[in-house]
Design goal:
5-stranded antiparallel sheet; 19 strands; Jelly Rolls; mainly beta; 2 domains; single chain
Length: about 350
């Protein structure tokens, strides 16, 4: 039977690994045990109807050795101290349980049972290295029993049983494994916190959003407040952003929906752009994707809010977080601002054509 082999794999991207303790197969051996015996039946029998055999209390004891540089082999005593040792032999023991059904002289089917202990020593192909002998054990698989019999005399029964099994020597080892990507389930609802921009620490700092050159405004699309970019100084850049970690999964598209309106101030010189984007990052904070749209001031109405939607590209397998960001970029002599309200970030369900 084959034993697991070791391979080396070079990953092209960062992966997530965890340390686990698993049984590692060191050696596998096919074992055959022959149990031959005679039994005297409780009474005279005309024939044997059937014999049902099974193996019970199967155990495997290991013999460890320490090979010196000279080639001498020294048996390792059974202590718990960690040493560089090898496993060389398996001592297999168990009980062959048999249920014998026979027909007596009155043509009645009767039953008797017997338990026969057996032992066999198996040499491994060569001594196998182990890390810690206290973590090494034997597993048994595919245990099968074939039995033949002969009624030598009316009360004398000769039986030959052949036990075939697979014995695996395994050791519990701590290894690192790469975990699978998170399930690509599309979460429901708005992933942005306080998308309505209703919670503010003061007039220029929304609680759940990062902000620069942003002020609170009561001219909103829904609710009581909205965010006005460029309000503190319409000739300086402004930004409104939020990190999103909940519900960002691989292999999905996301839709950013928001409402925007221009506000004319001073000389009412409209000369700015508003860039709305969703940026995606891996666990190391490296940007791995973006979906964006830039609106010029001429495309944003002054008298009412208008809805804007952006659908991102499909996210990569190593995506971990996202950022919603609105960037206000004024040109020279700009006096106007941009109001943003009712921001929604949703995962777009995949459509299937049948």
């Amino acid at each position: 039977m084959s034993v697991p082999q070791q391979f080396f794999l070079t990953e092209q991207q960062f992966v997530r690994c965890i340390e686990i303790k698993v049984p590692v197969v060191i050696e596998a051996a096919e074992v055959q045990v022959v149990v031959d015996n005679h039994i005297t039946l409780p009474e005279l029998a005309l024939k044997i109807d059937k014999i049902i055999a099974s193996v019970r209390d199967l155990k495997g004891n290991l013999i460890f050795v320490d090979e010196t540089k000279s080639g001498d082999i020294v048996l390792v005593p059974g202590h718990k101290h960690h040493r560089e040792v090898k496993v060389r032999k398996i001592i297999i023991s168990g009980i062959l349980h048999k249920q014998i059904f026979y027909v007596n002289k009155n043509n009645e089917v009767r039953h008797t049972a017997e338990d026969i202990p057996f032992t066999k020593m198996i040499d491994l192909s060569k001594p196998k290295d182990v890390d810690n002998r206290s973590d090494v054990f034997v597993q048994f698989h595919s245990v099968d029993v074939d039995i033949n019999w002969e009624l030598v005399r009316a009360s004398r029964l000769h039986q030959t049983a052949v036990i075939v099994l697979t014995a695996k020597v395994a050791e519990d080892r701590q290894i690192f494994v790469q975990t699978c990507p998170r399930p690509r389930e599309c979460p429901e609802g708005n992933l942005a916190r306080d998308g309505g921009l209703e919670v503010w620490a003061d007039d220029s700092h929304p609680v759940f959003w990062g902000a620069s050159n942003v002020a609170q405004t009561t001219i909103s699309h829904g609710g009581s407040f909205a965010a006005e970019l460029g309000r503190l100084n319409p000739q300086l850049p402004g930004s409104l952003f939020q990190m999103v970690s909940r519900g960002i999964v691989a292999g999905r598209q996301y839709r950013l929906t928001f409402y925007v309106r221009e506000d004319a101030l001073g000389h009412k010189h409209s000369s700015f752009s508003l860039n709305a984007e969703v940026l995606f990052f891996d666990e190391s904070g490296l940007q791995i994707g973006v979906g964006s749209q830039t609106l010029s001031s001429t495309s944003i109405p002054e008298t009412a809010y208008t809805q804007v939607q952006i659908t991102t590209p499909i996210t990569r397998d190593n995506v971990a977080t996202a950022m919603i960001r609105f960037s206000f970029t004024p040109s020279q002599n700009n006096t106007n601002t941009a109001k943003v309200d009712d921001v929604t970030l949703e995962c777009v369900p995949l459509t299937t054509n049948f």
